[in-house]
Amino acid sequence: MTQIRTRPERGRSALGPALELVHTGRAPTRAVLTAELGVTRATAGAVAAELQHLGLITVDASPTTGAASQGRPSHRLGIAPDGPVVLAAQVHADGYRAALVGLGGQVVATTPGCGTVDADPAQVIGEAVAAGAGLLAGTGRRCVGAGLAVPSAVAEPDGTALNPLHLAWPVGAPVRGIFRDCLAEAGVRAPTETGFTGNDVNLGALAEHRHGAGRGSRHLLCVATGHRGVGGALVQGGRLHSGSSGLALEVGHLVVEPQGRRCHCGSRGCLDVETDPLAFLEAAGRTPGPESSLLHQSTELLRGAYESDESVRAAAHRLIDLLGLGLAGLVNILDPDRIILGGLHRELLRVDEERLREVVAERSLWRRGGAVPLLSCTLDHNSLVGAAELAWQPVLDDPLVLQEDVPC
């Protein structure tokens, strides 16, 4: 007896690419999906129906068109509003936060930021996971994975925090293993491997590439301050460039002021200590207070006093010039087609975009840096969304893994 194939192999192999197209907003209709996949309309319809059956997307079977439109209207595709989520957590110098993130980079729920980071990574990661598990219990959504963002390079393949410079954690803390243990202890289970962990700026860049200011870029450079320090990332062809062991693009340790401040890495004048929130506050003659994070204090000062306070304006110009020097060097080495800036650097771009662009152009070879678009990061909680992207990736690779019914 001949076996009837209810899901043609070609259609099955198209499930992952189709889901990624909807996930990143590149296939808003079935007609676009058909064209992007290079399949027949019937195959695209079957693929969309299967993804809908898995609870991942919606297919609008009765779309409307304007009076001036021509031809048959195409079915609209969207993210299932009550679909599965991943648990995302982020630890930074001033606290931690947990969230539930759905397809499309949609933050479904988030906890308030906590301002206490224990010196024991297991303690703070456990608290973040417990907060995320509470969100899951409150929403009743299905969990398909978990991801963690940390302010440190994460060495591969062991998943260790190699340089948690602005935390009191020990060097080489096994954060991925700790995260997985905490998920198991909290009863968070998923149909795929879970406990993905990465550097916060890397993950923010990945999120911006898929859902924010980096969409459409093929060679995206991201440079951003965290609550302390400076990080960088490069996304090429949709994937993070992490190097041979996960440690690529430590741009915070690019020297821009050889006689400058002593950096935690042992050098002097690194971007990490010359252009971060603490450096700005000190250059402006302000003493940081305990009332909020350094990032919040620095951005509020820049927004509120740049026009009226000469010391704030001079401090901003100093950081812009040093940041521009660093970006020019990165343009010379990496040849990106777009640069996005986050944290305090986004605010520096906002207050004097012309100055920053001119420094990058002047200090780059053949003034090439002047032609590279400089944009601000646009996503709220982009490191959390990026941590979620790590956890979503196995589903994007093969949506049929969700047929395994594993409750959270």
Q: Could you explain the architecture of this structure?
A:
It is a single chain. This protein is of the alpha/beta class and 408 residues long. The protein has three domains: 9-63 and 74-79, Winged helix-like DNA-binding domain superfamily/Winged helix DNA-binding domain (Arc Repressor Mutant, subunit A), CATH 1.10.10.10; 85-202 and 382-403, 2-Layer Sandwich (Nucleotidyltransferase, domain 5), CATH 3.30.420.40; 214-376, Nucleotidyltransferase, domain 5 (2-Layer Sandwich). Helices cover 39% and strands 16% of the residues. The protein has helices at 9-13, 15-23, 30-37, 41-53, 121-139, 175-185, 200-211, 271-274, 277-283, 294-305, 310-334, 344-351, 353-363, 382-397, and strands spanning 57-60, 76-79, 85-92, 95-101, 107-110, 143-150, 154-155, 160-161, 196-199, 219-225, 230-236, 239-240, 338-342, 374-376. The protein has a five-stranded mixed sheet with strand order 5-4-3-6-9, sandwiched between helices. Strands 12-11-10-13-14 form a five-stranded mixed sheet. It has a two-stranded antiparallel sheet with strand order 1-2. A hairpin with a 5-residue loop joins strand 4 and strand 5. Helix 5 (121-139) crosses helix 6. The longest helix has 25 residues, at 310-334.
